[in-house]
């Protein structure tokens, strides 16, 4: 056993089999199973994580029948012919000494297709399709489908299955009165409603014998009205143990709940108190989950007795070697998941292949590799933001000689501003990771150095990468030089402070971030409690579903968020996070103004026109968040002098700037140099 993280890395005995450590790679829908040739890609994806020493892997959800699929054409395991494809995955994982369970997921009324089914015909607020009510025969057949699916999983070589009983999917829908209005033996009293999951677990155990892992994902905190009570959750946990499960994993929140449960604003490890409450109620291992992204935190959670195991999902997109690096005491080299959702969940929910903002290789392991360079080149990289850092560290990893020039005194670029935004503190982890990488691969770093074109020419580089990023757009507006006006970088860098009444010009990603920064009410000394109060989680667990509605408290500032265009504010924000930003600002009474024409700034404040009305916002400060302009003073002159130049990230296209594209471009370029 490793001397590092002794609690997290301690083996776990399940009786018939042993796990190497307490780390479970949680289920993620990567979309790999849905694309042609995807099982091969999935095999490589999982094998890299198994090689990275994770204790137990759980696959993305696979439906036991056609009705239960997430969308038409998504993964289902309902025939023997499909076994071969799954064997690619299990063989690859076993060859690396790993263990893997397949998650069985029936989406019930969350299915995005017309054939969706549920205990009662009640439409989900997040689905356009109304489900058909299952008959008694349908229910018996669905239970058999779960058992058959587990049997096929065993035949395909999986070490076990995870029965997905949380997040508001079919099993959860049977459990609570919100979605189960049946009057037959599957509805009414709780002892009836819980028969559906119990029959599934009993059926799988009976059919597959004792040497097969059954994990049950238990919704411990529904976070919806008319959800389970804590007494019911405990009753179910005990019954599930008796039915034959080996491990209980924690589920937090339904997809339709209005509480963010995994986004970056959730405090790290912020839901482990829920699993802790269950500790001692059952004798099988309990897994805790949600926003756990470092081995330090995982170790502490286990040391404090909050759980027996820790589940991390997205952290394994960000770094397949998470556990290995922890074992070897190299945690500063872990590429940490920053919970942005931009390349993982936002992709999955738009039916695109999943990846990772900080690690573009995730789910692209068969096509993006950082192999040793065939010929060593001398490369200059200008700009040490995310794009420049990724390009220089990957190029150096491949053996190139890399000089990295940064005009500021620190590495990180825009991430040094992003990390100041409440809920984005983890962006500092990416900067820490790249600092470790440039050091490890011996990139020559020149800080506070604005290198000139002549100096670059004199150095005779084989190739030059321009990653100089962007600068805030300067507006042509009367009074723009007024002392009330500042741009977002002046505010977030701490150069200037804002008063108590603020207008923000521009309601894009940064306008929203700045509004969040100005209206933050979270008490950092008591972060988890403060967060739960802000979003309405009943930590006393006396209310059914544990949801009591948001109460963020009154922010100290009055904020107006303005934009010229029409339509809803924040429409272009991330698919899975936009609603969080919108709800948070609405809960804090941020005044959203659209279709405005800015007129001028003077001592009275910001003058603007909306329709025919001219108005003045009497504010102390006006903060400009009106997008970015490209910053590239190099490429034209270098190209004129015959230098091979590559422009990446914001320097290439400021309008589309985001760190996902910047790091992705950098990675593909550096892999090909
Ligand atoms: P952005 O999202 O493009 O927003 C710029 C805003 O400025 C727009 O709302 C635009 O709104 C306004 N604007 C543009 N030109 C203007 C002008 N001449 N005068 C007045 N207003 C003007 O850019 P950003 O906020 O700078 O963000 C940069 C990038 O980072 C974006 O790609 C963004 O998605 C990303 N980002 C994302 C997040 C996130 O939460 N996912 C957070 C931060 C940043 P109108 O035209 O309607 O006025
Ligand atoms: Fe984490 Fe963002 Fe990567 Fe998803 S895209 S795994 S949330 S860092």
Summarize this entry quickly.
The chain has 673 residues and is an alpha/beta fold. The chain contains 22 helices and 27 strands. It has 3 domains: 12-348, Aldolase class I (TIM Barrel, Alpha-Beta Barrel), CATH 3.20.20; 378-472 and 630-672, NAD(P)-binding Rossmann-like Domain (Rossmann fold, 3-Layer(aba) Sandwich); 485-520 and 555-626, 3-Layer(bba) Sandwich (FAD/NAD(P)-binding domain), CATH 3.50.50.
Report on this model:
With 673 residues, the protein is of the alpha/beta class. The chain folds into three domains: 12-348, TIM Barrel (Alpha-Beta Barrel); 378-472 and 630-672, Rossmann fold (3-Layer(aba) Sandwich); 485-520 and 555-626, FAD/NAD(P)-binding domain, CATH 3.50.50. It has 22 helices and 27 strands. The protein has an eight-stranded parallel beta barrel with strand order 3-4-5-8-9-10-11-12, surrounded by seven helices. It has a five-stranded parallel β-sheet with strand order 15-14-13-16-27. Strands 18-25-19-20-21 form a five-stranded parallel β-sheet. The protein is globular, with a radius of gyration of 26 Å.
Counting H and I runs of at least 4 residues, what is the number of helices?
Answer: 22
Largest sheet: 8 strands, parallel, barrel
Q: What fold name stands as the CATH topology of the largest domain?
A: TIM Barrel
Which of globular, elongated, flat, extended, rod-shaped describes the shape? globular
CATH class of the largest domain: Alpha Beta
Work out the strand percent.
15-25%
Known CATH architecture of the largest domain: Alpha-Beta Barrel
Question: In terms of structural class, how would the helical and strand content be classed?
Answer: alpha/beta
> N- to C-terminal separation?
40 Å
Low-confidence stretches: none
Give the oligomer, counting copies of the same chain as homo and different chains as hetero: single chain
Strand arrangement, largest sheet?
3-4-5-8-9-10-11-12
Q: Which superfamily, in CATH terms, is the homologous superfamily of the largest domain?
A: Aldolase class I
Average pLDDT reading: 96
Give the helix proportion (percent range). Answer: 25-40%
The small-molecule ligands in this entry are: NADP nicotinamide-adenine-dinucleotide phosphate, iron/sulfur cluster
Radius of gyration: 26 Å
How many structural domains can be distinguished in the coordinates?
Answer: 3
Query: Care to count the β-strands?
Result: 27
């Amino acid at each position: 056993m490793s001397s590092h993280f002794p609690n997290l890395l301690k083996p776990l005995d399940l009786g018939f089999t042993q796990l190497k450590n307490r780390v479970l790679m949680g289920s993620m829908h990567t979309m790999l199973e849905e694309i042609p040739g995807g099982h091969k890609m999935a095999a490589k994806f999982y094998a890299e994580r198994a090689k990275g020493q994770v204790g137990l892997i759980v696959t993305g959800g696979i439906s036991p029948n056609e009705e239960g699929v997430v969308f038409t054409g998504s993964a289902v395991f309902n025939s023997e012919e499909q076994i071969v494809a799954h064997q690619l995955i299990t063989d690859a994982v076993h060859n690396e000494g790993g263990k893997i369970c397949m998650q069985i997921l029936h989406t019930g009324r969350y299915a995005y297709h017309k054939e969706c089914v549920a205990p009662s015909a009640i439409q989900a607020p997040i689905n356009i399709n109304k489900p058909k009510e299952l008959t008694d025969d349908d229910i018996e057949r669905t239970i058999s489908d779960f058992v058959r699916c587990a049997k096929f999983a065993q035949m395909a070589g999986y070490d076990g299955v995870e029965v997905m009983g949380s997040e508001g999917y079919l099993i959860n829908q049977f459990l609570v009165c919100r979605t189960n209005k049946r009057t037959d033996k599957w509805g009414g009293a709780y002892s009836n409603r819980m028969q559906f999951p119990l029959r599934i677990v009993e059926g799988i155990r009976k059919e597959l014998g004792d040497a097969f892992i059954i994990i049950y994902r238990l919704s411990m905190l529904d976070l919806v009205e008319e959800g389970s009570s804590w007494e019911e959750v405990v009753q179910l946990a005990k019954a599930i143990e008796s039915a034959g499960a080996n491990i209980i994993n924690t589920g937090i929140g339904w997809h339709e709940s209005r509480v963010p449960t995994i986004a970056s604003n959730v405090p790290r490890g912020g839901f482990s108190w829920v699993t802790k409450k269950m500790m001692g109620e059952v004798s099988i291992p309990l897994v805790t989950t949600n926003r756990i992204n470092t081995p330090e935190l995982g170790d502490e959670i286990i040391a404090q007795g909050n759980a027996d195991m820790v589940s991390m999902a997205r952290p394994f997109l960000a770094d397949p070697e998470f556990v290995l690096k922890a074992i070897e005491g190299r945690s500063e080299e872990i590429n940490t998941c920053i919970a942005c959702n931009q390349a993982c969940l936002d992709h999955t929910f738009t039916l695109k292949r999943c990846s990772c903002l900080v690690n573009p290789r995730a789910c692209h392991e068969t096509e993006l590799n950082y192999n040793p360079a065939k010929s060593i080149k001398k490369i200059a990289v200008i700009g040490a933001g995310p794009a420049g850092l990724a390009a220089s560290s990957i190029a150096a990893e491949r053996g190139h000689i890399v000089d990295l020039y940064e005009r500021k005194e620190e590495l990180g670029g825009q991430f040094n501003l992003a990390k100041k935004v409440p809920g984005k503190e983890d962006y500092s982890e990416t900067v820490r990771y790249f600092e470790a990488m440039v050091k490890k691969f011996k990139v020559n770093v020149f800080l506070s150095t604005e290198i000139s074109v002549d100096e670059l020419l004199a150095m005779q580089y084989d190739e030059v990468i321009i990653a100089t990023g962007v600068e805030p757009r300067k507006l042509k507006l009367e009074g723009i030089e007024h002392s009330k006006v500042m741009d977002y970088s002046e505010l977030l860098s701490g150069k200037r402070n804002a008063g108590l009444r603020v207008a923000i010009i521009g309601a894009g990603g940064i306008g929203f971030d700045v509004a969040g920064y100005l209206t933050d009410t979270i008490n950092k000394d008591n972060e988890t409690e403060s967060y739960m109060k802000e979003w309405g989680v009943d930590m006393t667990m006396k209310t059914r579903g544990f949801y009591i509605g948001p109460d963020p408290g009154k922010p100290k500032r009055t904020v107006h968020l303005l934009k010229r265009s029409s339509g809803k504010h924040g429409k272009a924000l991330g698919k899975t996070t936009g609603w969080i930003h919108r709800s948070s600002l609405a809960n804090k009474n941020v005044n959203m103004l659209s279709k405005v024409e800015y007129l001028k700034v003077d001592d009275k404040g910001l003058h603007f026109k909306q329709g025919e009305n001219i108005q003045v916002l009497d504010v102390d400060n006006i903060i400009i968040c009106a997008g970015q302009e490209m910053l590239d003073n190099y490429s034209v002159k270098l190209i004129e002098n015959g230098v091979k130049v590559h422009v990446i990230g914001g320097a290439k296209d400021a309008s589309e700037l985001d760190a996902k594209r910047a790091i992705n471009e950098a990675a593909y370029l550096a892999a090909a140099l």
